[in-house]
Amino acid sequence: MTRNTAREIAVHLAYEWSFSDLPVEEFLDQQLSAETFSDLAPEYELYNEMPNEKQLLYIRRLVSGVSEHAAELDSYIEKYAQGWRFERISLVASAIMRVAMFEMLYMPDIPHGVAINEAVIIAKKYDTPQVAKFVNGILGSFLREEIKE
């Protein structure tokens, strides 16, 4: 499994966690089980292979970080989604942007360009080309205005 696949799984889980009442660690324990991967594999190819230990830690760090910093990340999305109320942004797009913003803010080992590029690729896979452009625009503005290199 590649880091790209692990990131995509993290986006899936960040999205799904938004509907869960479970504490994030309990949710991740359930979702990152061999049984859950086996159940999801017929529907989603990215669940065909169980992540290794390093990938599991990466996924857990992303999803836990997104849950811990959700209010902060959402405020950035709202700030840069000019002309859009946060409620109008699809939950998939929000999850994608939360993961990318968390990487840019809190994971210095991830190049910012990689975080944005991967977010756009995931957005193209799960939403329309217009949403992918929207995600790219918001993340680009966020990077220029908020990230001090």
Automatic annotation (TrEMBL):
Assigned GO CC terms: cytosol
Tree of life domain: Bacteria
Residue span, NusB/RsmB/TIM44 domain: 5-144
Keywords: RNA-binding, Transcription, Transcription antitermination, Transcription regulation
Pfam families recorded: NusB
Biological process according to GO: DNA-templated transcription termination; transcription antitermination
Keyword Transcription appears in the UniProt entry: yes
GO molecular function: RNA binding
Family: Belongs to the NusB family.
Protein role: Involved in transcription antitermination. Required for transcription of ribosomal RNA (rRNA) genes. Binds specifically to the boxA antiterminator sequence of the ribosomal RNA (rrn) operons.
Stated name of the protein: Transcription antitermination protein NusB
